[in-house]
Design brief:
This protein is of the alpha/beta class. The protein is built from twelve helices and 17 strands. Helices cover 37% and strands 15% of the residues.
Length: 406
C-alpha cells in the first residue's frame, strides 16, 4: 500500500490565512448586510502601472506572430529581466551581482518553501517568533521541524528566536548553539521591524563562522524610507559566502495576480563542497518551467524611467495608508509598531486581550478584517497585524471604526 508523507499529518489545524478566510466567510454568510473592510491578508489593491500594462500588451502581440512567438523559456528567467535586476536592484546600490546568480520565479513564497529541497533534513532551522508561517510549515512538511506541541505552539526541532518589543522585534544571534538554516525577514512580516547594518553584520559573521546559511526574505525592501536601513543582505560584507536572498514583484509592483519574483544565490556560496548556485539551478531546471514571457516583460518594465516613477507612486500610496493606520490608532491610545519602513502595522491588543478574541471583536463589532498575531507564532500572541494595501478611503474608515468600538 502507498505510504504518505506523515509530516503533513503533524501540521496543526489549517494554514493561518485559510482559517481567517473561513471565519470571515462564516460571518459574512450570517450577516450579509455587513460591509467588511479587509486589512488582513497582504494582497494589493492598486492596478498595475501603465508602463507594465504597455509592456505586457506588446509581449502578447509578440506571442501572436510567428517570428516573435516564444515557447518554453529559460527556467532561470530571460536575460533581459535578470540583467535589469542586477543593474537596478543591486549595482545601483553598490552591490555587484551576476545575472546567472539571479533566478526568476513565480513568487517569494514559493522559493522560501522550495529552497529546502537543496538542504538535508537534519539541519537545525532557526526562525523568528513571530514568523511568516511558510518558513515553519514547509520545514515541518520536509521533516525538519520534529513534533508539534499544541500547548506551546512550537515544533520540537526548530530554534525559535523571540522578537519582542523588548528587543525591538529583532532576533538575537544564538550563543553556544549551532543553527544551520536561518530565516530572516526585513522589513519584517508581520511586525514591520527593520534590521540595521550592525545587526545584519552580526548574523553574517555568525553564519560564516559556523557554516550556516541565511535565508533572507527581502520582499518588502521597496517600502524602506529611512536611509540607514539596508535593502539587501548583500550590502553586508561577507554575505556572499553565507546568504541567499528572496525578492518579489508582488508588493513592489502589484504582481500578486501575475506571480513574479526572484532568488539570488551567489557563486561563492558553497556548503559540503557543493555550489548552492548549481544545486538551486538543478532543482529549478527539474521542477520549474519558468515564469511566462509576458509576465517577465511586465516585470522588466518597472525598471524603465517611466516604470520606476509609476511604481513609486503606488508604493507611496500604500505608505500613506500605513501612516494613517499607525497615527490613527496611536491617537486612540493603542500601542503600535511598524508602518514606517514596511506596509504592516503591528498592534498590541488592549488589556491583554488574546489575538483571536480581538480579531473576532474587530470583525463582528467594527467589520474590519485583520490578522491575529498568534497565527505567526507564540510571541505573536497579544498582537494584531494590519496591512496598508487597502484603498485610502477604506483604510481611513477602518481606523475610525476601530477607534469607535474601543
Amino acid at each position: 500500500m502507498v505510504q504518505i508523507n506523515e509530516n503533513y499529518l503533524k501540521l496543526p489545524g489549517s494554514y493561518l490565512f485559510s482559517e481567517i478566510a473561513r471565519r470571515v466567510a462564516a460571518y459574512s454568510e450570517a450577516n450579509p448586510q455587513a460591509k467588511l473592510i479587509k486589512l488582513g491578508i497582504g494582497d494589493v489593491t492598486r492596478p498595475l502601472c501603465p508602463a507594465v500594462i504597455e509592456a505586457m500588451h506588446a509581449a502578447v502581440d509578440e506571442m501572436g506572430v510567428q517570428e516573435t512567438f516564444r515557447g518554453y523559456g529559460p527556467e532561470q528567467g530571460y536575460d533581459f529581466l535578470r540583467d535589469a535586476i542586477a543593474k537596478h536592484d543591486y549595482a545601483a546600490r553598490g552591490v555587484q551581482m551576476a545575472a546567472d546568480e539571479i533566478f526568476v520565479s513565480d513568487g517569494a513564497k514559493s522559493d522560501c518553501g522550495n529552497i529546502g529541497d537543496i538542504f538535508g533534513t537534519d539541519n537545525v532551522v532557526a526562525v523568528c517568533d513571530p514568523v511568516y508561517p511558510v518558513y515553519v510549515d514547509t520545514n515541518a512538511m520536509a521533516g525538519r521541524a520534529g513534533e508539534y506541541d499544541e500547548k506551546t505552539g512550537k515544533w520540537s526541532r526548530l530554534h525559535y528566536m523571540p522578537c519582542t518589543a523588548e528587543n525591538g522585534f529583532s532576533p538575537v544571534v544564538p550563543e553556544g548553539k549551532q543553527v544551520d538554516l536561518i530565516y530572516l525577514c526585513f522589513p519584517n512580516n508581520p511586525t514591520g521591524a527593520t534590521a540595521n547594518k550592525a545587526q545584519l553584520q552580526a548574523w553574517v559573521d555568525y553564519a560564516n563562522t559556523v557554516g550556516a546559511v541565511i535565508l533572507f526574505d527581502g520582499a518588502y525592501e521597496a517600502f524602506i524610507t529611512e536611509p540607514d536601513v539596508p535593502h539587501s543582505i548583500f550590502e553586508i560584507p561577507g554575505a556572499r559566502t553565507c546568504a541567499i536572498e528572496f525578492r518579489s514583484f508582488s508588493k513592489t509592483a502589484g504582481f500578486t495576480g501575475n506571480r513574479c519574483a526572484y532568488t539570488v544565490v551567489p557563486h561563492e556560496l558553497e556548503r559540503g563542497g557543493a555550489s548552492l548556485n548549481r544545486l538551486w539551478n538543478r532543482r529549478q531546471t527539474t521542477k520549474f518551467n519558468g515564469v511566462p514571457y509576458v509576465v517577465q516583460r511586465g516585470a522588466a518594465a518597472i525598471y524603465t524611467d517611466a516604470g520606476k516613477k509609476q511604481v513609486q507612486e503606488t508604493i507611496s500610496y500604500y505608505q500613506k495608508n500605513a501612516a494613517v493606520i499607525r497615527e490613527g490608532l496611536q491617537t486612540a491610545g493603542l500601542t503600535v509598531y511598524g508602518g514606517v519602513n514596511a506596509p504592516y502595522i503591528w498592534l498590541k491588543t488592549p488589556d491583554g486581550c488574546p489575538s483571536w478574541d480581538f480579531f473576532d471583536r474587530l470583525l463582528q463589532e467594527a467589520n474590519v478584517v485583520t490578522t491575529p498575531g498568534a497565527g505567526f507564532g507564540p510571541s505573536g500572541e497579544g498582537y494584531i497585524r494590519l496591512t496598508a494595501f487597502g484603498g485610502a478611503a477604506a483604510t481611513a474608515e477602518a481606523v475610525e471604526r476601530v477607534k469607535a468600538i474601543l
